[in-house]
Amino acid sequence: MRSMRIGLLTAGGDCPGLNAVIRGVVLKGTRLHDHEFMGVRGGWRGLVEDDIELLTRHQIRGLSKQGGTILGTSRVGPYGEGNGGAARVKETMARHGLDALVAIGGDGTLTVARMLHEEGVPVVGVPKTIDNDLAATDVTFGFDTAVQIATEAIDRLRTTGDSHQRCMVVEVMGRHAGWIALHAGIAGGAHAILVPEVPLRWEQVADWAQQTADRGRAPLVVVAEGFTPEGGEEVTTGGVDGFGRPLLGGIGVQAAANLQELTGIETRCTTLGHLQRGGSPSAYDRVLATRFGTAALDAVHEHDYGQMVALRGTEVVRVPLAEATMQTKAVPREQWEEAAILFG
Amino acid sequence: MRSMRIGLLTAGGDCPGLNAVIRGVVLKGTRLHDHEFMGVRGGWRGLVEDDIELLTRHQIRGLSKQGGTILGTSRVGPYGEGNGGAARVKETMARHGLDALVAIGGDGTLTVARMLHEEGVPVVGVPKTIDNDLAATDVTFGFDTAVQIATEAIDRLRTTGDSHQRCMVVEVMGRHAGWIALHAGIAGGAHAILVPEVPLRWEQVADWAQQTADRGRAPLVVVAEGFTPEGGEEVTTGGVDGFGRPLLGGIGVQAAANLQELTGIETRCTTLGHLQRGGSPSAYDRVLATRFGTAALDAVHEHDYGQMVALRGTEVVRVPLAEATMQTKAVPREQWEEAAILFG
Amino acid sequence: MRSMRIGLLTAGGDCPGLNAVIRGVVLKGTRLHDHEFMGVRGGWRGLVEDDIELLTRHQIRGLSKQGGTILGTSRVGPYGEGNGGAARVKETMARHGLDALVAIGGDGTLTVARMLHEEGVPVVGVPKTIDNDLAATDVTFGFDTAVQIATEAIDRLRTTGDSHQRCMVVEVMGRHAGWIALHAGIAGGAHAILVPEVPLRWEQVADWAQQTADRGRAPLVVVAEGFTPEGGEEVTTGGVDGFGRPLLGGIGVQAAANLQELTGIETRCTTLGHLQRGGSPSAYDRVLATRFGTAALDAVHEHDYGQMVALRGTEVVRVPLAEATMQTKAVPREQWEEAAILFG
Amino acid sequence: MRSMRIGLLTAGGDCPGLNAVIRGVVLKGTRLHDHEFMGVRGGWRGLVEDDIELLTRHQIRGLSKQGGTILGTSRVGPYGEGNGGAARVKETMARHGLDALVAIGGDGTLTVARMLHEEGVPVVGVPKTIDNDLAATDVTFGFDTAVQIATEAIDRLRTTGDSHQRCMVVEVMGRHAGWIALHAGIAGGAHAILVPEVPLRWEQVADWAQQTADRGRAPLVVVAEGFTPEGGEEVTTGGVDGFGRPLLGGIGVQAAANLQELTGIETRCTTLGHLQRGGSPSAYDRVLATRFGTAALDAVHEHDYGQMVALRGTEVVRVPLAEATMQTKAVPREQWEEAAILFG
């Protein structure tokens, strides 16, 4: 089989494990098949603006443990206004002699990959969502690292809460799905876990906090950024920041304000934010990302385009992109209820 | 449904996550069903010698992040000479009014649980093997922590190897299955991974080390304790230790001796040993162990005895103990070969 | 020498190492001298409200690695309105037969200790400030842990910044002194470090950020919470939070807003907050805290009251409380300038 | 002042912080003074064999957090047989136009630097000893990282010991001085700390272990590799390894064998070995190493040769090389005795 020239890109928010995927693709491709690789800079932007460079084996050395992505990323898409769509992508690929693409990214990226594939671009997808909310795969890389970091933060905050008899609120990532909150909350022994999938009244959360305090412990509440309280009168925070954006829509700060008002317990909020997505991936994420990378190379090598790699049980399989992007994976109510037994 | 009195025991080698299982069982049982719990001390020994105490909710506070097991463990079994078998177990259970047992342990413990169940003891099993070598479950808790620790060790050793241009050998756990070696090796970017399932000649390993050195890098070799070299003349280490045991049968030291002799590259071995099984569990293991604990309580609560909890994909299910202990899960040759593409 | 009964209290904000001090005092006191100890709950509050319990050797088991303080803390002081002053303290001490106090706390706590001593209360101080801003001692425990946590956060944030070509701002503790910012900034290789001791114009900071971006790197700026920008027109953030407090007076968010406006580089802020003061202390802090604890016990044992323990070079010495609280230790301008060579 | 060309080398065993020193020297030298730098490969070997390359600012990017040394290291010295002595060093320096050297290394390296300086080579030393046993400086970088790693290992091993009621022995670095054992032992709450400076009978150590066990706890013993037991009949381990070296002269294994024999408590040994010297330096070590680097550059810039940089209290000072290498810093007996109060 003739040697191929393959383009790699990472798009959307960064995530621990991106570099391990890149390494997996390139190592297997160069060692087993003598394929050649090019790095597309800044996600789809590199194809739109023709920002593409050779990706040598030397560049991927020691990459599995490195956070971020050496290819850079952006939220630019080929179907954006004036970005030229599939035609531009094909043009750029032709200019560099690219036979195929490996696109590593989230829901948006994979949807673009599916659309490009429908227009004839030979592309294989690798799913990336730190929130773990993609139905087509059991787990995505980056999630384990984020949960680990959030759990370590909870462990730390708990000692401060106990010393000061304060209620501690931790806001974690999870805009549409509460997986990080659920797992970090269980691992850290939280007294309440608030997820987007399960709206709750602040009064209910305050009850759990109060029960905890009544047992002589400092309440610890984990809230996903996408949680929405149910009904009741909100204690809002108001204001706009320097960018004119509404200030402290931050649900963590809202939770703290409401819990303090309802329970009278001094309450503090910590927002983990970018800490959850940077830095060296956990061993679990490095292994999963490496397996995704080598499996994506296999798909490209077999010209099995329009597919995405995915984890099912302990196996890495292929799933059609069309199917893969149809459905997000929410925390099932019964799984949250199982965790809720431990609340309060 | 009437409230039950349930005995818990942990047997065999310790493993990060044991305490999280205990906490899960007790929290769900006390909160949802008003069951009562007793801690059986030192594994089966506590039933043989009647060393059993009340296990209060207070004792399980903050336990999910704590390494080891608060119940203690031992390798004593009820079927050991003079230990009284099922009759003694039933007798001790009756004396304390125990309606059922939750037995947390490895292959040996679960086999004992199965035998006791066949003799009429109401028992539910929770699988524990840091080596992850149980076929009946996709993953066991403790494994992720061990892989993480081994990976961090590899990250550290690599910088020393590179500075001194030495070959570094790391011996990790894995007597019959090489899962820890495989995952830590992939995560750490090892240049060779030696597992019990795949015998190799030292010459082959030395080739990989030499290829790595030829590219200007310091070779890093991960070897599972149960690896056996194939054919060839071994450079053995000989001797007996202060306990009269054969000295440094340690395969890591043997690997280092052989690699140094065959390649001429200065080689050092580090044996991680107990570092892999102690200390605070990773978030992944805390979540899995907690889920195993609450699922085991459910089985007991429904009087569904003779079962073991297990992970299948993302679900926790029940598996008959009889089936569960029949088969160990080896690293499939093709999975090792997939990793081997990255060697050298 | 007759055995004494000694009260211990921890006051002010919590700090990694408090428990190690407690353990050091009690272990040396019980083992070497047969002294008895009582835990004063919630700082000075315990003396004001008579909330005091026996502190057994069993309670201090395994305490050196535990964050927070098992004695609890508060900001209540004996000289607060209606709190009874030295008279009340002596009364409570007499009621429990306390011969002396060990007061572990910051500037405020030590000032109270000095005043009480001047009124005849036998007290020895142990300095605690996570900000490391006490002139009387070279280092205080908790500082090393805070710097380590902030450094790890910087390491993580850097990969995200590089992947997205964003400027990352990290706000760390340091209300009056910039030691945490200085050390974490040096350790993390920050491109600008903003401390309370050195007011700067946003334009200067933006210049450094721009220089960094011009070299193709993502700027990383560390700002101490007490930094005040110099002159110029501020881009403020406005608003009040749910407690009616001015919102996002957070200097980190202000820095991000200003830097983004001045450079046009997308900028994000992470505020570490309580993450820096919770959790297990670093080995350095455990050793220092243990040494402070045993040295404080020696002072009490020798009835050398009105003293505080302190580190000078590698020695733990005693300093009169009167002298100890007179002066804060600011970052010297030349030390900041030394670091500033590496900016941009 | 005219720009200089300066050679850097790292010699002896690797140590966390070496790269941070290199970065500090080069960043200050290029930014403030426009000096040029060359990397001498493999310690003194690079001067003996003329293995020297330009060291660009690009190469030192992100180096403060990286373990090992990018310059490589070796134990080759210019005064070794046939290595040409000072004459060869001067020759190589002249060939590359080197105006001065910065030599980063331990006792041996600094002694060579002193001898070369006496023969007219313009050299400045930076002390490096992970064991912290240099009298001329309060602390050396690398030590803090080693203590932190050993302390984390102790934390992990303790849970295993407690679960199995075993005695755990940890062997740490420290051939001539027991600083790592002392600090990690205090930080980890060890029940006995064995250092080279204080010979003890195994019976004494066994007594401590037995006392600990009698209180229901698992004894944890830290032993420095250079500890020598006093008198009594040793339980030796015998044998030779694959290199023909006496096997398990390892004092840790000897300690375990003797303690098990004397107490009857099952005992296990873990030898940390290279884990202590590899990997990313702690924040403390990064700051100290950076300060040593910039201070060494200052000395070179001022042509103040024959000096070594050193930490005194919180200041970085210069010490004549002649004086610096005269004396090792042992653990003072009274400091060990202070720690010993906590034993048993």
Largest sheet of chain A: 5 strands, mixed
Main β-sheet, spatial strand arrangement of chain A:
3-2-1-4-5
Rg of chain A (CA only)? 22 Å
Give the count of helical stretches of chain A.
11
Q: Residue-averaged pLDDT of chain A, rounded?
A: 93
Write the layout of secondary structure elements.
4 copies of one chain form a homotetramer.
Chain A: E1 5-10, H1 18-32, E2 36-40, H2 45-48, E3 52-54, H3 85-95, E4 100-105, H4 107-118, E5 123-127, H5 143-164, E6 167-172, H6 179-188, E7 192-194, H7 202-214, E8 220-224, H8 251-263, E9 267-271, H9 283-301, E10 307-312, E11 315-320, H10 321-324, H11 333-340
Parallel strand pairs in A: 1-2, 1-4, 4-5, 6-8, 6-9, 7-8
Antiparallel strand pairs in A: 2-3, 10-11
Subunit structure (chains A, B, C, D): Homodimer or homotetramer.
Active site (chains A, B, C, D): 131 (proton acceptor)
Site (Important for substrate specificity) (chains A, B, C, D): 108
